[in-house]
Amino acid sequence: MLGWFEPTEKVTGKQLRRGLHALTMDGVFSQAMDAVVSGAFLVAFALALGANNIVIGLLAAVAPATQVLQIPTIYLVQRWRSRQRVTVLSSAIGRAMWLVIAALPWVVPGVLQVPLLFICLLGYNGMAAVSACSYNSWVRDLVPERIMGRYFARRTAWSMAVGAAASLVGGWFVDYGKHHHDLQLEVYSALFISGAAMGLFAVMWLGRMPEPRMKDPPARGLWRQVLEPLGNRNFRRLLGFTGTWTFALNFAGPFYVVYMLKRADLDMTTIILLSVFSQATNVAFLRTWGRLADRYSNKSTLGVAGLLMTLALGLWLFVTDLPGHWMPIGLLVVIHGITGIATAGATLCSGNLALKVAPRGSATSFLAANALVAGVMGMLAPALGGIMAHQLEPEQVSLIIQWIDHADSTSPSNIQSWKPFHMQGLDFLFLSSVVFAFYALHRLAFVRESGETGSDRVMAALYEETGQAIRGLTSVSGLLGLVYTPFTWFGWKNRRRR
User: Fold this and answer.
1) For 281, which of 112, 158, 244, 308 is 20 to 30 Å away at the CA?
2) How far is CA 102 from CA 78, 118, 319, in A?
3) 309 lies in a domain?
4) What is residue 1's predicted lDDT score, i.e. its pLDDT?
């Protein structure tokens, strides 16, 4: 077992194949853990404990706030000279915290449950930040660059598929326990225990991955290494994009579940089904994004994914303005579908872009700086979003059009009105996120990547591949038109790759 922690001078082909398989299994079980302990389940659990919008925002800020721990982790990695040891130990300690969270409703007085939930999340996410620093550098040296896009697309596809199944089972479990046996908190505790078990099983697979031997540490001190990425002009531009993009996504991100639970009045099963649909589209398009990233560039592909994500953010403004019950749900399906497609490309390409822009041999400090910037902005965004949501919750802005029915213009009752647009509470957060996202894409334009091409070529290729995939499933022209809608809105329908 101690042999797990011995770095090798050179990873052989057999060791690489075994390591890539172990890395895939780690992704699968880690994603399954995240599916049942985070997102809608964590928000609903916090609401059940009595949390308000400000608390929800603060809970969402915990994970990015702990990214500052990546700075001392750089020193720890260089001192131990084993990234695997740091990753395995910190991951195991952090994921065991979910066992403590599962016990909170039963062993802690009610007034202390939310504060202790906050403290436990600090411990879990703090250890996750330590693990991520060593893990990213380890994977950067292990996975060959020539297959990076395709491998991570395949790994993420398997992970998302398993995570979707786990979240669907968890959502049904929550609704069944709540409506049939009134066992809401008991169900969440069971989910968190199962999530901790899957997370610890994923740690076992990390122990089976080979680790290339690290290069000798630079003669520079720790703080000079931390500040080194700021001296790299191109990486500094990447940090500008990372910070603004993270802020845009996290400003309103934690409140989508609150919006669907309270304002749209959806049950947990429906919310999880929407999430599963989003994850299904995510999985379906991962290979496409991976091929596009390898064929063109991560930056260009990321720009296209970012535009689609911005479109999805803007559509949240119109959900509750639609009449009836099924039309809002239909729009939510469209939003989650576009979000799944865009998230697949944005997550894959932003990670690969950071890996490529970071100089080989100095990846630890550069990637830690990138994660630190994302952490700071990801901490500020939900905290400020929660305060804004709390303050603006009673505020409303509406556009009302009125006209008089000339058949009887003397009667006030014949004044007709139509309210095409209405904003209230969380809608202000969604609009702000759209503005921040557009600015983040503006910052992305200044980043340089070798071999980059225009985003219009990527969009044209994505349009063609989407059409081929849909035509392979159905010949219904209406479905084709629905799928093509995001592309035509951005004016790329008639463009073709030369």
Assistant:
1) 244
2) 35, 13, 34
3) yes
4) 38
Amino acid at 460: A
Phi, psi of 202 (to 5 degrees): -65, -35
Q: Which residues contact 4 (CB under 8 A, 6 or more apart)?
A: 84, 88, 207, 208
Residue 18 placed within a domain: yes
Highest mean pLDDT among 68-72, 317-321, 353-357, 435-439 belongs to 435-439
* Residues 100/106/107/112 CA torsion (nearest 10 deg): 90
What does the DSSP 8-state code read for residue 216?
Answer: P
pLDDT tens digits along 165-216 = 888 888 888 887 777 666 778 888 999 999 999 999 999 998 888 888 776 6
Full-model pTM: 0.67
Give the torsion sign (CA, 125, 127, 130, 132): negative
Name the residue with higher pLDDT: 419 or 235: 235
Query: Taking the C-alpha atoms of 68, 142, 94 and 171 in order, what is their torsion angle to the nearest 10 degrees?
Result: 110
* Domain-embedded: residue 54: yes
Task: Quote the domain boundaries for residue 240.
Answer: 12-210+222-391
Per the listing, tokens 């949501």 go with 389
**In a domain? residue 493:** no
- Rounded Cα distance between 125 and 119, Å, is 10
- Total domain count, the chain: 1
- Residue identified by tokens 């008639």 is 494
Give the whole-angstrom CA distance, residue 393 versus residue 54: 12
Q: What is the CATH number of the domain that holds 62?
A: 1.20.1250.20
Q: What is the pLDDT of residues 237-265, one digit of tens each?
A: 888 888 899 899 888 888 888 888 877 77
